[in-house]
Structure formats: C-alpha cells, structure tokens
Amino acid sequence: MRLQQLGLRDHADLRGAVRILVTGTAGFIGGAVARLLTAEGHDVVGVDAMLPQAHGATEAPAGTHRVDLRDPAPWPDLLRGVDAVSHQAAMVGTGVRVADLPGYAAHNDLGTAVLLAAMHDAGVRRLVLASSMVVYGEGRYACPEHGEQAPGPRPRAALDAGDFDHHCGVCDAPLAWSRVGEDARLDPRNAYAASKVAQEHYTAAWVRQDGATAVALRYHNVYGPMMPRDTPYSGVAAMFRSSLERGEPPRVFEDGAQMRDFVHVEDVARANLVALEAVERAGDGRLAAYNVCSGTPVSIAEVAALVASGSGRNLAPEVTGGYRLGDVRHVVASPERAAAELGFRAAVPPTRGLPEFAVTPLRS
Predict the structure, then answer these.
(1) pTM reported for the whole predicted model
(2) Three-class SS of residue 258?
(3) Helix or strand holding residue 356 (H, E)
(4) For 106-143, what is each residue's pLDDT tens digit?
(5) Which of 296, 293, 290 is nearest to 349 (CA)?
(6) For a Cys-Cys bond, which of 88, 102, 172, 296 suits 130, CB 3.0-4.6 Å?
C-alpha cells in the first residue's frame, strides 16, 4: 500500500502550518490532540457539544466553539479555510441499556453524517476519524488442536458458574487469545460499538462518493493525564485509581485474566498527528483503518496492580468474580500495520505509564 504526504489544499502538508478542525476538544483525547497540533504550529479550530454527562456544567474551554454536531447551521463558517478534520467527538461508554441506543445513534451516527455532509459542501476532503477497538467485539481466538475460531457471546450460565473463557466448539478446551489485525471481522456488542462501526461505514461511503481521503484510528484502552474521574466516560484505570484514593482495593471483574492493550493518551495524540501527515493515497476509494495500541498486552488484574504500585498504597486488587454481560473476554491489538504504513509505534509502555498515571492530574 503506497503512502505519501497528505494532499491538503494547495498541496500544503503538515510540515507547514495548516488549519485543522478538531471535534471534541473539551474531551480527554480531543483535548490532547488539539494541544499537540497547536504545539506543532497548526491553526486549530476547536468544537465540542459539551454534553452534560461528559462535562457536567462546565463551560467550553477557551477557543472551543460549543456546537451540537447534528446542527448543520454553524458548519459553513467553522469549516471555512479548513484543510483537514480530526473527528474525536463521541458519546462513549458501553451503552449497556437498550434505552441508550437513541443517544448513541443521535450523537455518534447522525452527528458524523452531518459533519461529513458539511465537509462535502465546504470542499474539505481530508479526515482522521477516532474509532475504537470495540468494533471488533471479541478478540481473536484459537484452539491449539482445532485452529482459529470465532466464538459468540459467552452464555450467562457459564459466567454465573465462574467459567469466563471461550471454549473450542470441537473439544471444549479453553481458547487461547492472539492479536487482532485490522482485517478482522467487525462484531459490535453494545450501543457504543455499533455507533463506532456506523461512523466508519459513513466515512467509507463519504470517501467513495466524494473522492476524499480518510483514516480511522481504532483506539484501544486510552489512559493518561486529564482523564475524567468517576464518570461514565472514565476508563477502568481511572476507576482503579479512585478506589485506591478512597483507601479501597481496586475491584476487578471476572478472574482478572482478561487481556487488553492500554495506550497512553500522548501516544494517541501522536498517532493522530502522523495520520494527518501520512495517509493512504491508493486511489481505490477505501477507508484506511489502524490499531492505535501500546503493543504490550496486560491483564486487567495487572492493570490494577500497576496503578496500585504507583499510588504508594499497599492494596492488592480484589478479584470479585462478578461480570457484565456486555464485556468481552480478550481483545488485544496488533500494532504492525500502523508501524509499517504510518510509521507509528507507541513510546509509553503500560509498565511505566500505568504507575505514573496513579499520581498524574485527572479532571473532576
């Protein structure tokens, strides 16, 4: 696959200052992306809906336009002179209730579709989309004897009995996990995941119909400074930290052996920068997708222990055996395509970043 510098208006690229619209700049990841782009000398137009469930009653940060993505009226002015868009805004969390479906569809699906239509009208043809590992559903599994398998959701009866593994459909042995590449099937398991798949599909349609170029960055578990504290938008590392600060052991679901990839927000911001600088130009009208991950798998129990070690509190994780039906067992990314085609590899391993996270500033 051939890569070259992103073809921006007048053939400029990110080696010179360009104007980039970033959605979600009041958020954890969007804010980090906007700060890095600004530090690199680019002109950032910040946009955020300031959803109460994410930001409470706080005002939009200085320089951020408070805009509901679903409203087409502000976009002509906001996109004037813009060379590329970094779309980070979304409702996150898992969306565990059926009642959550309309909110995810409204903000993530419709909001993205309105943005893409506005970009078409404004002649903006370059996009980096924040996607997620959740589009894969379960990770990749294989039986040593019977090869790769694609298990369905785990039965409630097995979870109740404390059997958290997937099993071979032939010999019933527990399946081993392996790394998931970007060509894996998409299998969303909750409202948020379904909305992320929809965002990728809307973007792919826009690329084909508009002669545009786009990259979807599939973030794995992002953590780091200014992560939200104790909200539906908090990640498990932040929840472990909050427990430790209350003098309580971090509580781990299932048996703690669930494998994930935790990637530092500074690496995620850098991935966005390189995606804006170098993007697929094969001319075949396809959306390019890349895992953004540390490349160092860790179990959830190890995450809790690493955060505890950095906190200075001698509190071992409490493995509860509890479960959530929407959770998947293992999902671990392959970093190889991003390394080969974008030149991106994470710089912060979880063994360093998670202990440091225990004492970095969070956002209340």
Answers:
(1) 0.92
(2) coil
(3) helix 350-357
(4) 999 999 999 999 999 999 999 999 999 999 999 999 99
(5) 296
(6) 88
